[in-house]
Amino acid sequence: MRIPTHALRTVGQVVLGYLRAVGGSFLMLMGVAAALRGLPRTSRQTLLQMEQIGLGSIPLVIVTSVFVGAVAAVQAAYQFQDYVPMVFLGTVVGKSVILELGPVLTALVVGGRVSASIAAELGTMKVTEQVDAMEILAIDPMRYLVMPRVVACVIMLPVLTIIADLLAILGGMFVATTSVGVNTATFIEGLRMFFYVDDVISGVLKAATFGGIIGLMGCYNGFRTHGGAQGVGKATMQAVVSSCTCILITNYFLASVLFRIIFYKGT
């Protein structure tokens, strides 16, 4: 059976597009690493981005995390019914929130908001030639536009994740005590039974990595913007899709490595 030429051409263009995006993102990451030496001179921009990313995302994180913890408690109680003692309800909620639900869902929710905002802002600057004007004035866009945003995302995502973990556990405890019939002491006992600091550290490391992905994808797609307002909208959409996809893919590899380290350390 002969494969049509246009189908091969389409597949090749898609593959080359992905490879071009991976290469461009890696080069931008290297540029951010090289620009870190200028971080003290851009501290004001970095703090401003931390405020916009962190404080601006707190209401969204609060609503998301509380209901995530509530759903985790309801689902765990349903699965435990008549099979597992309810003392382990706090264990399951705590483990699932700290290891997976907290870092991943916080990154997905915040990433959709932040990466879109960064891509739209930088994309507008790109199509209006503000970035070109900075280069003409010998101002490095990598140092003054990209690096502060990536650093702010790396710093604030772990903070938001810790807040989300706490609120999700409280939401799960509230549902457990009001709907499931598990008292607070039993829930806390199960929570403390298998609580390890290594789990918290692994969740924070995940969040920092996801933060770098969010900032990098937003900046990369913003700098690739062309074609006016329509191009800005397309870049915004691509930033959200690429950041969420990279978060889910990276989470698998991080989970494999971190869980293996924790397992061997525990044994």
Task: Report on the architecture of this protein.
There is one protein chain. The protein contains eight helices and no strands. Helix 3 (89-127) runs antiparallel to helix 5. The chain is 87% helix and 0% strand. The protein has 267 residues and is mainly alpha-helical. The longest helix has 40 residues, at 141-180. The model has no long low-confidence stretch (mean pLDDT 86). The chain has one domain (12-266). It has helices at residues 5-35, 43-80, 89-127, 130-136, 141-180, 184-193, 197-223, 228-266. It is elongated, with a radius of gyration of 22 Å.
Residue-averaged pLDDT, rounded?
Answer: 86
Order of helices and strands: HHHHHHHH
Rg, rounded, reads: 22 Å
Report the end-to-end length measured between terminal Cα atoms: 55 Å
Strand content: under 5%
User: Helix coverage percent of residues?
Assistant: over 70%
